[in-house]
């Protein structure tokens, strides 16, 4: 536990049409005194869904309830396959919204490094990668 609460990843519910704002609470401190803050590109369908979700977590910067829980899923049998799971009403995953991410951007690599070092909000998955596309 830190002075900002339990180590966690969270995403702001109301932010932008093509981006999400992610906060990482815990150690290491990357670019904020509470841990990490980054922005990632996201499809409008996801950001619209996110804006409809009820915030359940407060910002360590302001104390205001603005965020939803998020975790990073890394697939053991599929090296390099990483997804973000945002908890809420079902969008494209039973627990909320799943977002495929590529670790070739600095922001995504910074997020992955933070999660690995903080040992929180990282889920190692067995089996196949969850499919977010309609087949």
Would you mind describing this structure in some detail?
The structure is a single chain. The protein is α+β, with helices and mostly antiparallel strands. It has helices at 44-51, 106-118, and strands at 8-12, 19-25, 35-41, 57-58, 65-75, 82-87, 96-101, 122-125. Helix content is 16%, strand content 36%. The model has no long low-confidence stretch (mean pLDDT 85).
Number of helix segments?
Answer: 2
What is the helix content? 10-25%
Q: Indicate the radius of gyration in whole angstroms.
A: 14 Å
Mean pLDDT: 85
Proportion in β-strands: 35-45%
Profile the largest sheet.
8 strands, mixed
Total number of β-strand segments?
Answer: 8
Count the domains.
Answer: 1
Gap between N and C termini, in Å?
42 Å
Query: SSE order in H/E notation?
Result: EEEHEEEEHE
Low-confidence stretches: none
Task: State the secondary-structure class.
Answer: alpha+beta
Shape: globular
């Amino acid at each position: 536990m830190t002075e900002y609460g339990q180590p966690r990843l969270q995403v702001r519910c109301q932010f932008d049409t093509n981006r999400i704002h992610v906060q990482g609470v815990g150690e290491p401190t990357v670019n904020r005194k509470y841990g990490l803050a980054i922005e990632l590109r996201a499809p409008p369908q996801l950001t619209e869904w996110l804006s409809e979700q009820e915030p359940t977590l407060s910002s360590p910067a302001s104390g205001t309830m603005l965020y939803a829980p998020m975790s990073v899923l890394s697939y053991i049998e599929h090296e390099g396959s990483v997804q973000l799971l945002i908890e809420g009403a079902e969008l494209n995953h039973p627990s909320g919204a799943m977002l495929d991410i590529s670790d070739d951007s600095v922001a995504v690599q910074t997020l992955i490094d933070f999660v690995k070092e903080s040992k929180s909000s990282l889920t190692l998955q067995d089996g196949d990668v969850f499919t977010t596309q309609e087949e």
